[in-house]
Amino acid sequence: MIRRDELIKIGQFNKPHGVKGEISLTFTDDVFDRAESPYIVCCIDNIFVPFFIEEYRFKTDTTALIKLVDVDSDNDARMFTNLEVFYPKRYYIENDEEETPDDYFIGFTICDITHGTLGEVVAIDDSTINVLFIVEAPGGKELLIPVQEAFVCAIDEEKRIIQMDLPDGLIEL
Questions:
Q1: How far apart are CA 56 and CA 128, in angstroms?
Q2: Distance between CA atoms of 33 and 42, rounded to whole angstroms?
Q3: Residue span of the structural domain in which 150 resides
Q4: Are residues 59 and 138 in the same domain?
Q5: Among 43-52, 64-73, 85-94, where is mean pLDDT lowest?
Q6: What is the DSSP letter of 171?
Q7: Do 58 and 18 lie in a common domain?
Q8: How many domains does the chain have?
Q9: Cα separation of 2 and 6, whole Å?
Q10: What is d(CA 125, CA 8) in angstroms, rounded to the nearest whole number?
Q11: Same structural domain for residues 127 and 148?
């Protein structure tokens, strides 16, 4: 069974392209340039389902046309319209150890040197130049923590903990 924490969201399918089962994919991560996985994953009826890639080609710098195994007509491809597309982290990380995607840190616990455990990273806000961890703190409070290398003291990938030294007043905002 594939779990959400094993995946990185890389984009969304748009609509079928042509009549031979190709699907247009708008991607938000250039994973195809940096890693190789024989499959991608889509969430269908709340179950993460792998689909094997027969071939793909770039249409623009943010769009690719993907042909999946056993998706052989525009009618077959239509079921993928607007589905989010995920990539298995294990292929991504093994092949690109220099740079880890921010989505990788979802599920990690943030601990501050001064304040202790702050909560769990539930999302990443990369809509601006200042990327933020969205942290769910105890009591349902939401914290926005800047993803800044200068604030990170240590990352324990096995225990899924990010130890940080945050500036005074940041978590009171």
A1: 30
A2: 20
A3: 103-172
A4: no
A5: 85-94
A6: G
A7: yes
A8: 2
A9: 7
A10: 14
A11: yes
User: Are residues 85 and 107 both part of a single domain?
Assistant: no
The average pLDDT across 110-138 equals: 89
**Which two three-digit tokens encode residue 17?**
């392209």
| Domain final residue pick, 98, 125, 152 | 98
Q: pLDDT tier at 82 (50, 70, 90 boundaries)?
A: very high
In the beta sheet, which residues pair with residue 168? Answer: none
Q: What's the CA dihedral at 24, 29, 31, 34 to 10 degrees?
A: 130
Same domain membership, residue 119 and residue 50: no
pLDDT on residue 121: 92
pLDDT band at 173 (very low <50, low <70, confident <90, very high): low
Q: Are residues 28 and 74 in the same domain?
A: yes
| Tokens at 111, concatenated | 């601990």
Q: Average of pLDDT values for 158-170?
A: 89
Measured over the CA atoms of residue 78, residue 81, residue 84 and residue 89, the dihedral's sign is: positive
Examine the fold and report which residue of 98, 121, 151 is the final residue of a domain before the chain moves on: 98
Q: For 23-33, write each residue's pLDDT tens digit.
A: 999 988 777 66
The rounded distance, in Å, linking the Cα atoms of 77 and 21 is 5
